[in-house]
Amino acid sequence: MPPLFADMFSYHHHFNQKTIDLLEQHAAALPENSWPLFCHIVNAHNIWNSRVLGIAPATGVQTVHSYDQCRKMDTENYQNSLALLETADFGTVLSYTNTRGEQYTNTIGDIVFHVVNHTTHHRGQIMAQLRQAGIAPPPTDYIFYKR
Question: Which CATH fold topology does 3-146 show?
Fold first, then answer.
């Protein structure tokens, strides 16, 4: 298992759980799309894990969950990602169909990196929404996690 990726998934799980708490606590003050955007992060992670593991995803890409369901799914995503890192060959080419029915191929390494990057991108959007609503988000940069 590439230790850096395991560390990145640990980092994302840590801050995803904190983000769920923040979104639940400040739901009334945030834009309507904040919670669906966070659910999208968790849903996409589940879908990518499912593709690599060869199993049916537990959700659709735009499904909105309860806070507790999202906490649970994020934890399951984290655990499945760690298991995947233990067994997957990052050079293996995977063919899959995206949510629009289009066929693609990518290496497992490409997919793992995409999941990490996708999470960072969208969680950053949510942190910006918190700031715009006058709510100070925690510092979620990777280096703060490592300190």
Answer: Four Helix Bundle (Hemerythrin (Met), subunit A) (1.20.120)
